[in-house]
Structure formats: C-alpha cells, structure tokens
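Lab notebook, bench 4. Still working through the backlog of constructs that have no structural model yet. Next entry is a single chain of 395 residues. Request: give me the structure tokens for it.
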Amino acid sequence: MTTKDHERGIDLTGVVVLGATGSVGETTLRVLERHSDRFRVVGLAAGKRVKRLAEQIAKWRPLAVSVAREEDAAFLRREFKGVDVYSGPDGPVRLAEHPQAGTVVAAIVGSQGLRSTFRAVELGRRVALANKETLVMAGRLVFEAARRSGAELLPVDSEHCAIFQCLQGENSASVRRLILTASGGALRDFPVEAIPNATVEQVLCHPTWKMGRKITVDSATMMNKGLEIIEAHHLFHVPLDRIEVLLHPQSVVHSMVEFNDGSLIAQMASPDMALPVQFALTYPERISGLLAPLDLAKAPPMTFAEASAGRYPCLALAREAASSSESHAIALNAANEVAVQAFLDGRLRFGDIATLVRSVLDETEPSAPANLEEVLQLDLAARRQAQRRLSQIEE
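Model written out:
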C-alpha cells in the first residue's frame, strides 16, 4: 500500500473510526493495533458508550473524539486535556472533516452514519464502508460525490469485500451475476410456524458471527441481505436482477462472482471481520494480519441453498423497494430501523417486522432525491409513518 495518494495529497495513515465502540469499530482497533507501525488513530466517534470510549482514548490518544450527549462530552474534556471533544449529530461529521483524516472507517450503525460518511466522500477520503445504509439511502448521490472528489469507497461488509476481491483484474462486462452468501441468521432452522413469535433472546443468538443487536436481527429477517443487494448494485454497477442470494450456513464462502464463460470465483476465509477491515485499510496491498489460515481439511462440509420467501419475507420486500424507486429504498431502511428497535424494546412481534415495513412501502410515493437534505426528509417522513403504523399494531 502507498501510504499517501500523491495526486490528491491524502495521507491514508491517519484513521478516523466512526462507531468506535461497536463491533466493527472494535475490530478496526484490533487491526490498527496489529499494524500500529503503519497507521495512527486520528479520531474516534461513539454514541453513549462513554466508559468504553474513555478506555479507547486512554489507549490510543486520538486528536479528536465525538459522543452523542453534551454532558458526556463535558466529562471527556475534563478527563482528557488536549483532545478535541465534539457532541451531537455534527460530531462524527467534524471528525470526518479532520485535516489528518485520510481514511475514515464508516461503522456507525443505520441511517445515523449517513451524514458523516457522505461528508468523508465529499472531501475525497478513503472510506472503509461498513455502513450499508449509506448506499441504500443515497447510493447514487454518494457515487456522484465520489466522482467529483476522487474518494475511494472500499467495502467492509464481508460479502462486498469478497466480491470486490473476486473482481480484481476482471472486466466488469464479463460478469454474469453476483452471488451474496447468507448465514440465514439465528432462526434458519426454526419451524416456519414458530418464527413470528421468536423472542429477542432467540433472535440475537447468531450461530456464526458476533455482531451488534440491530444487524443480528436483520440477519434473522434477512433484511441485511436485502440491503446488501442494494449496496452491491451501487458498488459494482450490476443490475438488481443479476444479484442473487444463497444460504451458506458455514459462513466460509463470503460471496461469489459468476462470469459469462461459466467460471465461478469465490472468496473464502474464516468468519472474522478483521479480514475485510484490514483489506480496506491496506488495499491494494495484502499483508499478514489477525486472521488464522483456513484449514479446508478440517472445515465442515459446505452447503448452499436458496432462501425461502416464506421464511424470509423481508428479502422480497427489499428487492421490491429497490426496483420501485430511490424513495422506496429510503422508506424500506427507515421502516426497518423503527421496526427492529420496536422488536428489541418488546413492542413488536418478530413476525410483524415485515408487516410494518410492507405498510410503509405501500404509502411511499416514488421519487429521486436531488440532494442529501431531500434524502433525510424522505427518511424522516417514512419514520413518522412507521411510528404511526407501530401505534396501530400495538393497539
């Protein structure tokens, strides 16, 4: 890896981690520790996990940090003199704007990560993208901004990182289809009739990956795979009908690309987010890291199967939304975030997540936002509709 993009004057060794206390953020810091001779931590953004962030600050001594609440920011200012501390929704944006932020790891969960990720793209940073919602909500606008600024978008989702690797040196015109693999989530072996009443504890017991609560629920509904279809469409400029999903419970093959000549290229590795994080940080160089080699002789037999529409209705909803309009994709994501949080809070049955999302999509008018503010307005309108529908379901 060249540590500086000389044409744009971007020093890639200065790293900002947005979502530092989450699963991907913690993994990123593990990778950075392994390669502390190559990178330095410029900024860390967290939400309300201030105690954990304070531990990270003490270890990494970043130049700037961000938290959700001003009272937490005041505490950090007292504890860490010389560290710039921001608060509120503008905090992660200010970190993305930091003059020493050459690489921005976008790992804030959900739509909350949109503004800071978009700002990093506008400024021409290298963006290690773990926030799939950014492209679901504003993929066209993001890539228009990237073309203007010269920003690099490198996928951190294991599936998209796998596809990106499979496409290295290939002619995109020869791609027949992209195949995203899916674990199937915690409920993949549940009787279909028992799924609607699955408990929070059951849904959060993922068999393969250690992830945050929201994405673990999305894995169980397969909404995460629906969002990844939309993300892959924008990242790789492949039509939606040529992006498919296969269940692969072992989570060893992270995704595949099929070419016009019948060749199928797959990327394989142990299920550990350290690999895609490191790949995004060090690209185009491959260096030794935290991941243990995959011993195929000892690996379990690998199986693949189609995803049942009856078991995973959210997957079909995502395809429908993506095929309808940009506003439908925005509404899909907004309604899903409301529904998942309501499920985690005990206000909504697992089986009603898809029902709530369906109702919001039915009320959405097709449109294509002209700018980020219009995206955020559509997102807000869909959330309000989802909250109204949630109140009706609760009654």
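Notes after review: The chain has 15 helices and 14 strands. The chain has two domains: 4-156, 172-268+293-394. Flag for follow-up if needed.
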